[in-house]
Amino acid sequence: MDTPEKFINLKNNMKYVSIDIETTGLDRERFQILSIGAIIEDTEKKLPFNEIPKFHAAIKHKEILGSLYALNMNSKLISAIVEYQCAEDQETKQEIEKIHDMKFLNEEDVVEAFFQFLYINEIPDNSVDFSRSHFHIVDGHRVPKLSSNMPTVHLTVAGKNFSTFDKLFLERLPRWKQCIRIRQRILDPAILYTDWKNDESLPGLFECKRRAKIDGIVSHNAIEDAWDVIQLLRKEY
After folding, report:
1. What's the rounded Cα separation, in Å, for the pair 6 and 4?
2. φ, ψ of residue 72 in degrees (nearest 5)
């Protein structure tokens, strides 16, 4: 297989966010996001999975509309959302979060929780001026409150098909466009694992993992798929 040598030229301290979502179907106008997985990668530190900063959240829905294929593929995730929403007390809900290792959020709260995760983990960096913002305390950290005049956070994102799929769904979340901007250049690992002589199209995530000799299936779990993308990119820096 032919791959461009040193295709990714990352500075030692570059950070990017690997993002993946699970949805109820392919049509962003009709279907819904079920979960979001995001991992902050520091290309200098390259932390293991259990230490790297992760954001994993399921979105609570009163009604779910989707394709049979997507609903079947995400049946365990949907069951977890139902289980959480039917829990009668906070202790039970906390136990469900612990079991599934993710938060369960209302759709209108997702962007704020994601922004808090980014800010606590030093994205955006000090070049973004939040001096005019109001702050509150989140998990012991002083974090800007979302407001109409807050500066937009710009992210370098990695993801398989992110620009043509995930990004379009995420932009429909309440306040996403107000708070988050994705830089135009997306880190998609497929280009690194393309067989230019034999492939008719860019390889999927499973084929990229096979060619990179990374064990394991594609789980269609948002946080695990986001981690797969980081592992594929790490082969090149």
Report:
1. 6
2. -70, -45
Domain boundaries, the chain: 15-234
Alpha-carbon gap, residue 79 to 58, rounded angstroms: 11
The sign of the torsion formed by the CA atoms of 150, 151, 156, 162 equals: positive
46: Cβ contacts below 8 Å, ≥ 6 apart: 234
Q: What is the pLDDT of residues 48-95, one digit of tens each?
A: 999 999 999 999 999 999 999 999 999 999 999 999 999 999 999 999
Q: What is the pLDDT of residue 85?
A: 96
Tracing tokens 């995730």 back to the chain, one arrives at 77
Q: Which of 211, 210, 228 is nearest to 219 (CA)?
A: 228
Q: Where are the alpha helices (DSSP H) in 121-175?
A: 167-170
Q: Measured between alpha carbons, how far is 154 from 181 in angstroms, rounded to an integer?
A: 5
Beta carbons of 140 and 167 less than 8 angstroms apart: no
Superfamily of domain 15-234: Ribonuclease H-like superfamily/Ribonuclease H (3.30.420.10)
pLDDT in tens, 21-38: 999 999 999 999 999 999
Helices 75-86 and 90-100, packing angle to 10 deg: 160
Q: Which pLDDT band holds residue 6 (cuts at 50, 70, 90)? A: very low
CA atoms within 13 A on the CB side of 199: 17
Q: Which pLDDT belongs to residue 12?
A: 53
Query: How does pLDDT run across 163-196, given as a tens digit for each residue?
Result: 999 999 999 999 999 999 999 999 999 999 999 9
Q: Does residue 34 contact residue 78 with C-beta atoms inside 8 Å?
A: yes
